[in-house]
């Protein structure tokens, strides 16, 4: 029996070779797209699965009206909470301090460092290679090294590194090696080349509202996390009130601070804030959903083509039933035929994934490999389920044929068959229209972001970050001044400036300000410490007032320029804000006077709202030691030559031994678009895939249906109908289905894109033209595909189709 089923299957595959190829190709592409996005999702979910006690370790996040939800916590919030709440078993903090240069003898290692405390190793159980984790970070002079870093510094003698002194060239301090650890092999955001004790803990112990650390709690098993979150939130709200009383402003009872706990194993995707190297879960889930739609579209093609071929197999089914075949046997036979197509498509899809994976990894900046056995188990189950779903409808449809009708040969015009094919074709075109609409709107939004006035001109400007050192003796500000003076002498350097916040990297160091005349008016603002020429350097436009004058002591001591958003937060327009005085949280009782209001400068990307910011002289308080970059404008006449001269100076005099790295400010800001440009690219690719699958299916379906009407065409030609009339008669039903599908897709497309656009602080108004263009485009493509086959039908041999009449 099975042998006969296979023979029949291969006979039908060969007879309908075009639709078989289209089915395999469509299913392969659909499965390939789904698998690529699925393995990306699985890779993101696999972060921190290596931590043994991960179900009881939580990442601490804070949210309030001023900051939104942020990934950092204060020192007392973490460690006082540990002592105060019995549910918390242990606590730790960490900060990623970027790459720094360590040296020992003639060897050096340039690697990323983490500042933490001893409890770090109780949370993140790295494999110990040498030394002891207990008291490994008990004071500021101790350091633990990763195995890779230890090998770079000590070579093959790394096991004897414990107790030896190494130098951190970045801050000119010496450290004693206390432990060597091996980094986890699983996916993780914790990959420090070295770990040392955070040197600023002592001064942070009483700063409840200074959110400067990434905090983690280890809770006791069975802890009610919601109850603990409530307790922690109440504690922080009480501290907010104490701070408000000391500073003289009022808290908003409706927008109080809240504390959130996210499991460390879900932190990568589910952190409420930006987290630590957080993944883009929303985009992944959207793409996963769209890939499921593409897979469904492939299945719809299969169902539609199988049902369209029904008339060719109607007599076969009738004969099989007459000779005693049961309905169950027929269903199993047709399911087997579908499963074989799906199996071939599954193998081809994996081959396509293997070929595309290197490019996909480069696009995602990942290193995903097809080594997870669960992937094959999940996709194998998917293959079986997909085969059942896509094969069951045509199988039941074919097995329900009545022998008396099929043997008479009058099934081809069955109303049920026509209704089913039209419904499935409509669903197929709905999905296609949905993708076209969404793709066009995404293109419009990304284009809007790329062309939006950002408030600054960064042409021919580069930024170089220099290595921060100790705050002792004003290391950073003195280094900034020295480098600025030396770089200014390089031919081709037109101008140099610096700032605490760099464009494209967002803002930092927030504080509360209040008006000196009305203490009820407060605002959260960012500290914009800038050099004298910063606003001129970037051609930032003044809306009212003037720039800071470095020759006037009053300007450099308490003068300020604010942006439009800051003025608005305090209830003023650019003109009424001039001359107003305010107190800040970073300079105690000192008054700042608004001398000018400038247009908003976008630091973080146009998907984020512009933060209120106060620009002031960087060289007057602790802010000056946050200066760790130079922004250089080079002559447009010799850009490459000037960049080479800057590189030579940097690598030989400024920071010899360190990697030289710079970035054009425009490109640095453009990185804020990368996420959305990648979404645009992926959606465009998916849109092309959808259209190809849909049009291939439409071509195969129209071919089968038009072939069933060749006798009608022959009769019409005999009666004198011209080619245009015949083509229109064969095409118009498909065009009507296309119009219906587009109108059905419009509300789905509108809802999906409206939700997507909510992520943007600056967004386009929902346009009408993508919906109209979707209709026009689909009508044109449908007409081209169907009319091609319809025109071919008008060239038939009339005798061949009329000789039996």
TrEMBL record:
- First and last residue of the signal peptide: none
According to its UniProt record, where is this protein located? Answer: Cell membrane
What Pfam families does this protein's entry cite?
FtsX (PF02687), MacB_PCD (PF12704)
Q: Which GO terms describe its molecular function?
A: transmembrane transporter activity
Q: Which UniProt keywords apply?
A: Cell membrane, Membrane, Transmembrane, Transmembrane helix
Q: Where are the transmembrane segments?
A: 21-41, 284-305, 330-355, 375-398, 419-442, 682-706, 734-753, 768-791
The cellular component terms of Gene Ontology attached to this UniProt record, alphabetical and capped at eight, are: plasma membrane
Look up keyword Transmembrane helix and say if it applies: yes
- Provide the primary localization: membrane
Q: How does it sit in the membrane?
A: Multi-pass membrane protein
- InterPro entries hit by this protein: ABC3_permease_C (IPR003838), MacB_PCD (IPR025857), Macrolide_Exporter_MacB (IPR050250)
Residue span(s) of domain MacB-like periplasmic core? 20-232, 429-636
Q: Domain ABC3 transporter permease C-terminal, which positions?
A: 290-402, 685-797
PANTHER family documented for this protein? ABC-TYPE MACROLIDE FAMILY EXPORT SYSTEM PERMEASE COMPONENT 2, MEMBRANE COMPONENT OF TRANSPORTER-RELATED
Question: What is the official name of this protein in its record?
Answer: Putative ABC transport system permease protein
Classification lineage: Bacteria, Pseudomonadati, Bacteroidota, Flavobacteriia, Flavobacteriales
């Amino acid at each position: 029996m099975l042998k006969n089923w296979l023979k029949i299957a291969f006979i039908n595959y060969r007879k309908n070779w075009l639709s078989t190829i289209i089915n395999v190709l469509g299913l392969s592409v659909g499965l390939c797209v789904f698998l690529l996005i699925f393995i990306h999702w699985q890779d993101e979910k696999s972060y921190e699965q290596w931590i043994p006690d991960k179900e009881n370790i939580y990442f601490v996040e804070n949210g309030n009206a001023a900051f939104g939800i942020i990934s950092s916590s204060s020192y007392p919030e973490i460690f006082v909470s540990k002592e105060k709440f019995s549910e918390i078993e242990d606590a730790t903090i960490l900060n990623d301090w970027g790459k720094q240069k360590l040296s020992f003898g003639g060897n050096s290692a340039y690697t990323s460092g983490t500042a933490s405390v001893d409890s770090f190793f109780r949370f993140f159980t790295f494999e110990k290679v040498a030394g002891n984790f207990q008291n490994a970070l008990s004071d500021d002079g101790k350091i633990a090294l990763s195995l890779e870093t230890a090998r770079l510094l000590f070579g093959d003698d790394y096991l004897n590194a414990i107790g030896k002194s190494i130098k951190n060239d970045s801050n000119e301090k010496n450290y004693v090696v206390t432990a060597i650890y091996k980094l986890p092999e699983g996916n993780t955001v914790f990959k420090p080349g070295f770990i040392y004790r955070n040197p600023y803990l002592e001064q942070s112990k009483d700063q409840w509202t200074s959110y400067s650390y990434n905090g983690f709690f280890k809770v006791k098993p069975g802890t009610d996390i919601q109850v603990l979150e409530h307790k922690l939130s109440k504690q922080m709200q009480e501290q907010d009130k104490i701070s408000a009383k000391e500073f003289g402003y009022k808290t908003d009872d409706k927008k109080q601070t809240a504390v959130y706990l996210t499991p460390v194993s879900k932190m990568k995707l589910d952190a409420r804030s930006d987290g630590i190297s957080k993944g883009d879960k929303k985009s992944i889930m959207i793409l996963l959903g769209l890939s499921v739609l593409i897979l469904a579209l492939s299945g719809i093609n299969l169902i539609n083509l199988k049902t369209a071929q029904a008339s060719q197999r109607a007599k076969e089914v009738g004969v099989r039933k007459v000779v005693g075949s049961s309905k169950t046997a027929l269903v199993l036979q047709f399911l087997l035929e579908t499963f074989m197509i799906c199996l071939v498509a599954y193998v081809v899809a994996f081959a396509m994934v293997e070929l595309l994976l290197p490019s996909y990894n480069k696009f995602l900046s990942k290193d995903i490999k097809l080594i997870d056995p669960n992937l094959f188990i999940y996709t194998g189950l998917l293959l079986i389920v997909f085969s059942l779903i896509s094969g069951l409808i045509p199988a039941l449809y074919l097995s329900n044929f009545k022998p008396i009708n099929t043997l008479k040969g009058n099934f081809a015009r069955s109303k049920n068959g026509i209704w089913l094919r039209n419904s499935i074709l409509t669903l197929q075109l709905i999905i296609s229209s949905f993708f076209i609409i969404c793709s066009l709107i995404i293109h419009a939004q990304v284009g809007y972001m790329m062309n939006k006035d950002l408030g600054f001109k960064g042409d021919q400007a580069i930024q170089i970050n220099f290595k921060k050192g100790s705050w002792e003796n004003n290391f950073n500000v003195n280094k900034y001044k020295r480098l600025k003076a030396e770089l200014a002498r390089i031919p081709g350097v037109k101008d140099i400036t610096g700032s605490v916040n760099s464009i494209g990297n967002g803002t930092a160091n927030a504080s509360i300000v209040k008006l000196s005349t009305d203490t009820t008016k407060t605002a959260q603002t960012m500290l914009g410490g800038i050099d004298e020429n910063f606003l001129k350097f970037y051609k930032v436009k003044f809306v009212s007032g003037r720039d800071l004058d470095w020759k006037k002591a009053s300007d450099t001591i308490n003068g300020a320029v604010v942006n439009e958003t800051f003025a608005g937060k305090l209830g003023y327009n650019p003109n009424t804000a001039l001359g107003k005085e305010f107190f800040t949280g970073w300079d105690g009782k000192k008054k700042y006077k608004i001398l000018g209001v400038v247009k908003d400068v976008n630091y973080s990307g146009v998907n984020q709202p512009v933060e209120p910011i106060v620009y002031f002289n960087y060289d007057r308080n602790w802010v000056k030691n946050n200066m760790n970059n130079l922004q250089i404008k080079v002559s447009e006449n010799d850009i490459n030559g000037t960049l080479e001269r800057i590189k030579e100076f940097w690598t030989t005099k400024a920071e010899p031994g360190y990697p030289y790295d710079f970035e054009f400010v425009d490109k640095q800001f453009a990185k804020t678009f990368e996420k959305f440009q990648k979404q645009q690219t992926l959606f465009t690719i998916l849109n092309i895939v959808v259209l190809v699958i849909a049009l291939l299916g439409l071509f195969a379906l129209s071919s089968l249906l038009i072939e069933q009407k060749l006798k009608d065409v022959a009769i019409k030609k005999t009666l004198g109908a011209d080619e245009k009339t015949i083509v229109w008669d064969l095409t118009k039903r498909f065009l009507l289905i296309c119009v219906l599908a587009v109108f059905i897709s419009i509300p789905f497309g509108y809802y999906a894109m409206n939700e997507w656009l909510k992520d943007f602080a600056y967004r386009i108004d929902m346009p009408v033209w993508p919906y109209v263009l979707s209709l026009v485009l689909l009508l044109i493509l449908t007409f081209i595909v169907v009319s091609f086959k319809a025109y071919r039908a008008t060239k038939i041999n009339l005798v061949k189709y009329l000789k039996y009449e």
